[in-house]
Amino acid sequence: MPTSKKPNTMLSTVTQPIEWLRMLSSQLNPTFVIGVFLIYGLGQGFSGSFFKVVSDYYWKDVQKVQPSTVQLYVGFYFIPWVLKPVWGILTDAFPVRGYRRRPYFIIAGVLGTVSAALVALVGNLAAAAALLCFLGVSASLAIADVTIDACIARNSIEVRSLAPDLQSLCGFCSGFGALVGYLASGFFVHHLGPQGSLGLMALSPALTIVLGFVIYENRTSGLHGEKKQTALESVGMTIKSMHQTMMYPQVWKPSLFMFLTLALNVTTHEGHFYWYTDPKAGPAFPQEFVGVIYAIGAVASIIGVVIYHKALKDYPFRNLVFYGQLLYAISGVLDLIFILRWNLIIGIPDYFFVVIEETATRITGKIRWMPMLVLSTQLCPLGIEGTFFALLMCIDSIGALLSRWGGGVLLRLLNVTRTDFTNLWLAVLIRDMLRFAILALVFLVPKAGQYEGLLPSEVSEKNVSDNVDEETLELVPINANTKV
């Protein structure tokens, strides 16, 4: 009997993810799942992680910029994400030649491809010009992300039982993509250098261009003047509906919590990165191992998604967020131990301890944030779900931007430079204290379960119109009527 159970257990481990994907494809749309893989896996996952490592080395070794300045530069990357409601309104209300989705995929792809190629091929590029190119890469990812997020929000509202599963799917795709990106980044930086490696950033936006040409979309009809007036009226109604929805306490309270959670979680990443590679004050990790560290973090993020998907998606929002934030704050203490080199005092080598620290931080970070993403989808009213979800993500991006800039100001005030890391431990201590302080704000998160609707019924009824032209995210035409 025991011997017969082992193969079954191993087989189920392999078949369960396949059956899960089949279930999502059957209840939603197989091409929707493919779209998530393309945008979240290749775009946000691979490109985002590869860009993070390679751009850090680019600023450090090519531009020779101080860590506090890089921290401020990184904050600018979030500006295109702050503008997500603008991209959402453009794709919803301003079709190009009758198409709402195709042109913006193509625009995003062209913008990202040109930006990545410029910074990779042009030597002696000024810091301001390089920053503009990096902004172009970030804008490419943000614009492409808007369309798929709208589809995810609608599916989460129409099939509430699958809302946690959809966020799990996004988490798995971005996690696996990040794993590949981080593993590849150190190798390519070592062999091609930071500037040459940035040329690979053109891969994802180039495929986004292809996606824009092959994606199936119904072309809208009507006179140009009528469409223009309808678009302008649609923008006005959308803005009014967004304002009215945001005024509900069950919407603005969790939105405020998500913003404060990100804004108060000041990041000292650039200080850590410079310290990682310093041969005197830090552990002097080689380029390949820095990529491995982040790859381990990507694996840990996937583990966090698995833990959430298997064990935590039935818990109420407030309880899960509270304990997730508590564990995340506790895991931050490991950074402090590492910076102070206490790990060597207790006999744990740097290479081993950084794995422990990165794993704990990524798992707890994913566990605390997954329910917040599910909550965001449940706050979106039907009819304006794409633009409203973009608004919520915009609020989060503003919080993340303030987190980067706050960390940059903190590093500068404490005089953490390319060679002086004396006060880096103090910056980490302040960051950890802020993480614990966020626990006092958890009362803003609703007590409701993750499958429950949070908005009054009149909100959705008010925003849904029989005249709304629903579009499906399809890579090839299909005849069957399917939900998106």
TrEMBL record:
InterPro entries: BT1, FBT, MFS_trans_sf. Keywords: Membrane, Transmembrane, Transmembrane helix, Transport. It holds the Pfam family BT1. Gene3D superfamilies: MFS general substrate transporter like domains. The keyword Zinc does not apply. It comes from the Eukaryota. Its main location: membrane. It is found in: Membrane. The keyword Transmembrane helix applies. One of its GO terms (cellular component) is membrane. The chain crosses the membrane at residues 32-51, 71-91, 103-122, 128-148, 169-192, 198-216, 256-277, 289-308, 320-342, 382-403, 424-445. It is a multi-pass membrane protein. Belongs to the major facilitator superfamily. Folate-biopterin transporter (TC 2.A.71) family. PANTHER family: FOLATE-BIOPTERIN TRANSPORTER 1, CHLOROPLASTIC (PTHR31585), FOLATE-BIOPTERIN TRANSPORTER 6-RELATED (PTHR31585:SF44). This is Probable folate-biopterin transporter 6. It comes from Abrus precatorius.
